[in-house]
Structures are given as structure tokens and as C-alpha cells.
Fold this protein.
Amino acid sequence: MNRVKLRRDGAIGRIILARPEKKNAIDREMADDLFAALAQLEGDATIRVIHLGAEGDDFCAGADLDALERTLDAGAEIHRQDAEALGRVFLAIRALMKPVVCSVRGRALAGGAGLATACDVVLAHENAEFGYPEVRVGFVPAMVMAILRRLIGEKRAFELVATGRLVSAHEALDLGVVSRVVPGAEFDVTIAKLVADLAATPAESLRMTKRLFYALDGKSIDEGIALAARVNVEARSTQAFREGIRRFARPTEKP
């Protein structure tokens, strides 16, 4: 993995975009590396949470335009494979049965913004910026729209992708693009605490929570409640649930 670093820190798996000289722009090799890293961590039973971060001043500037230029005359099949390589990364993040936390410093643009918002939790540095400027170079923010429309709705999403304008971390929070904006002085500590807290949570309850959360997409309220009831029953059968209920129902008596 030349463009992505993979580290294990106890129950925390860390994936780090490692092309700071290119503002972590995504080419086919990086997309493949990201997918491989996610697959490795999903298959590692010791990992409970995944943290996606980046080296350098910017999280990710989007697609590598130099790489795109080299494939301009490559034909439709090559372009399809290239696009689907990034698309399967987005899908893999959603399909993982472990929460994925993304920390964003600097700019997250185009596919980089899509990569961040594909994650389950997005913590943004107070100086971070987000944008979908593909239209300005005659491109289409295609796959990222599948995520963006779900996050913020039609009107606001269309305005962002049609104008390509950048939004601050605080506007991104107001729009629902990020989970939280963190002051710069507290950023590293806040990230560390969040992933540590998630890593200390019973793995089975995290797995079922994430599975149900996204399974509710497109369900009616009746279907959603019925599905939730089944997951509720499933959760009650786990050892972690039994131990947790006993621990809270029978707190240690104080002298």
C-alpha cells in the first residue's frame, strides 16, 4: 500500500491517506489500497473501530487530475473501472460492521468530501472546508451525490453540486455534512477520545447498531419498527447485554 498507511492500535484500526505532496488526491491505486485496508480491518476480530485520517494540510483534494488526464483517451471501460473502484470504497465503508470515524483537517473536496461523508462519524477541524467543485472542470459529482442527497436533501445538495462552492466546517455542520466541529487546540484529543470510547463499546452492540441504522433506509415506519424489534430481540441474546443489564441493575453497594 504505497498511498495508504494501515496501522493497528489495540482495538483501533487506522487508515491514513499518505499522499500529502498531492493533497491526498485519489487515483486508482489509492482507491484499491483503501478498499484493501478496509477489508483487512473488517476481517480482523480484534478491531472494533476504524479511524480514517490523512497526512499533510488537506484531507483530500478529490480525484487525481494528472491521473485522469493520462486516461482521457483510454476508453469507456477503463473509465468505468476507475469510477467503480472509488464507488466500492464508499459502499465498503457503509457495509462494514464496525463504525468508521473520519477526521478532516484542511480541505475535503469532490471525491474527498464523498470519502469523508461516506463514514459513519465525521469530525471536522474548525478550519476545515468542504466542497464539490467538479462542475467547474466539466465533470459531474456523480457518486458523491448518492451520499449528499441523503445527508442534506435536494435543494441544499443541488446548490452545492451545481455551484461547486466551498463551505466552512461550521456551515457543513449546519448542513448535516459533518457530525461535529472541533476547535483546533482540542482536535487530536477529541478524535483520540471518541475512537477510544467506541473501541471500549461491546463489539456486538456496535455491529447491530450500524447494521440496523443503515437497514432502515427506505423503510416505512411500520417496516422500520418491525425490523428494529427483531434486532432488539437479537441484542438481548448477547452476553454483553446480559452482563450490562446485570451491572446496571445491580450496582455495587456503597459502604
